[in-house]
Each structure stands twice: as C-alpha cells, then as structure tokens.
Amino acid sequence: MIEAWTAGGETELQRWRERRRATEESLAEAARLQGSATARRTPEEEDFTEQLRAVWQERGNHSTEKVARYCGLSARTLDSYLEGRTLPNAERLRELFDGLSVVQGDSEVSLPPIREALVGEALFRARTARKEERTRVRQLARALPGGQPATPDTPHFSGFGAVPGVRLGQRFDNRRTLAQAGVHRQSIAGIAGSRDRGAESVVVSGTYADDDHGDVIIYTGEGTVDPRTGRQTHDQQLTRGNAALAASAATGLPVRVTRRITIGPHAGAYRYDGLYRVEDYWSEQGPHDYRVWRFRLVQLPGAEQSEVARPTPTPTSDAKTRERNDRPRSVSSVQRVVRSTAIANLVKRMHDYTCQVCGIRLQGATGGYAEAAHIRPLGSPYDGPDTVENVLCLCPNHHVLLDQGMLIINDDLTVVNRADSTVLGHLRETADHRVDRQHLAHHRVRHALPTDEAAQ
Fold this sequence. Notes:
Structural class: alpha+beta
Strand content: 15-25%
Low-confidence stretches: 32-39, 149-155, 310-340, 450-456
Shape: globular
Oligomer: single chain
Number of helices: 14
Radius of gyration: 26 Å
Mean pLDDT: 77
C-alpha cells in the first residue's frame, strides 16, 4: 500500500520509513514518561467495559431492548457500550444507570454510590486514554506521504484570554463556528477547560437559571438535566466544568464569556462578550430541589479585555522543554486580595498573629504576619458582616483552604481537612474572640456540606 502511494520510488519510500520511525520513537518516549497507554484498544477502555458489564449483571442482566424503554438511549447504543465498541459520556452513563434502576422494579435497591463512582472514574480514565490514542494516530498519519494537512484559514486557539482576531460583540451563527474560531471549543457543554488548568470559556445559553446582570453573572454550573423535561435530576458535583471554574477562581486567569442571542432576527446565534474573572463560587439548593454550584463572574475593565494568558504546560521531556524555551512567552500574574480593615487587624492582634488552626506564627520583617479570613464572605450574595465573630486569624495556607471549602470547621470547633477527612485539631478561641456558629454552618452549606453531615 505504501509503495502504491509513493509510486514505487525507493527514495520516497525510505523517507517515509524514516519519518515513521522518528514519530513512533517520539511517541513511545512521551508515553513512557507520561505512563500513558498506546495500544489500539487501551487497557482503560477494557477495564471500563468489564466494570459496566459487571454492573449490568448485578442489576439482573436484562436485555438492552428492555432497558432502552426506560431511558433515553436506544438498544443499539446500549449494545455498543456493553460490547466496548463505543464509550458513553457521563450524562449517557447516568441515563443507563437510571434505566437499570427502573427496570429492576425495586425502587429501594439502587446502585451503591461507591460502585457508581468507581464506574464513573473508570469511564473518565477510558475517555482520557482514547483521546491520547487518537492524538497518537493523527501524529502517525501526518508522517505518511501527503499526510501533512493544509494550513486552515482560521487557526484554532486553545489558550486563555482574548482570541486574536475576535472582536468584542462579534456574532457567530452557531456553536460550530464558535469552536472553529477558538472562542469556545465545546460543541455542547457550556464550560470548556479542565480542573488542572481552569476554565477557558463559558456559554450563557439559558439551560440553567443564571442571574445575568451584564458586567456581573451568577453562573450556574453544569450537571444532569433531563432533555425531555428540562428538569435537573441529580445534585451537581464539583467535577469536570464546575471544577474548571473553581480552578479559575484560584488562578485568577480570565474566562471568555459568550451569550446566546434569544431575541430578534439573530435568535439562536451567539455573541462574544469579553473576558470575566471568577471571583467566587458556592453551592446552594436549586429550583428543582437539587443542589447546584454557582459562580460569580465579573467583567474585566476595558483595558484588560485584550489580554491573553496561557498557563505554562508541564514539561514531558528535555526536547520539548528546549523547544518551549525557544518560543516567545506571554507573562500573566495572579493576585489574591487580602483585605485590611480595623476589624481584621483587631482579630489578628487578639491572636498575636498566630494561626487559629495550626498555631504557627509567621515572623516577617516588621513583625508577625497573619491573614484575616471572613467565614461568611462580605458583599452580595452572602452579605456577611464585617464583625469580630465572622473573622478568623489564619496563616496564608489555611486561609486559602478555608476559602476553597477544603477546610471545614464544625460547631464543636473541630477542624477537618476535607481532602482526606482527617481531624486537624480544634479552632483556637480567646475570651475576647468567639466565632459565630451560624457563620460556620453557612460556610459548610455553601461548600455543599450539609450541617448535619459535617457534624458527624
């Protein structure tokens, strides 16, 4: 076949062999360093298929035609999942589980949450491995004669910040043109990004009840919505796109915002409305009695609307590191606001600038250093008071963990590390500084931890 492509020319055939060898060696080295699978059918895909079949058998080993009647999937689609020919996305997997639960007939016996989480994690690994395999195949294809693609008219942009060549207020006919321009890469999901890098862009499309005030958006995260009824069917989790937006709140990188135009002659079109910053996020009860994640996005000033920031990628090899060092870099900075008020300074003096969680006192050039952390945030939508009872004296590390909901304080003042559920100790109080337990309860609920669960 290769000889036919090269018209039998020995010189061209030898060049193709050299390109293939160099490409395969480069891919094999990258795979070895990253620990990723390079088989045509990855072990991760096999593992997910086996786990899915095991769940199917546990739930009664029903026919796919029978289960299909109780979910939004066809029997043919279910067969392809069970045979390992295709992989579902997270929403399709949830529909499959719902169908199995209904067809079993016993509403009190549901799939154990741990089992469901394990299958979902296996699906995530399988989809990640498949994406890496497709990248490998594309790279190999480019090594073939004539495999180099033509340069597209509009280069795909996959960075953070403003997209070169896209102006504020520019309209796009559909999601496909948005993706082609690099404004929003996802064709369906409303959030594009990853939990490691943060969110690149979001689309305000009206799927959820967002509070859109123009320069400030209270954006509702993504989750499971029944396409037939438009109702939410499960609690939203801090995963996937929601985790990406939470990461953006920590990194401070800007997020592109596109709105769907729902009135006038441009109904169904989209408009790019610039860069926003994720200033805060929390969890609350949604309109359908399920919890949702909410994100407060604030528009950047006009002078910052043209900034482009790309996070530095993780090095994978010396060759790639050298290659990146030769490229021009764009520098971005992230700032975290530490308020300084009379109340905050008073609380820090009460504790002699010693962290109430770990007991560490940082000694700076001009004396002790600590940060004042508001348990219930100031301003809308929380309206926390700037009072002594709502402020903690913390070191920078525990201030960040408290703001991100990874540090939980119960009413008995036990401090829990949410990452591994370990008890770090008790929050230190003084005779003059007593913490309001209602603010602690608000913090737990805001970060999707009900008060009764946190107290256990």
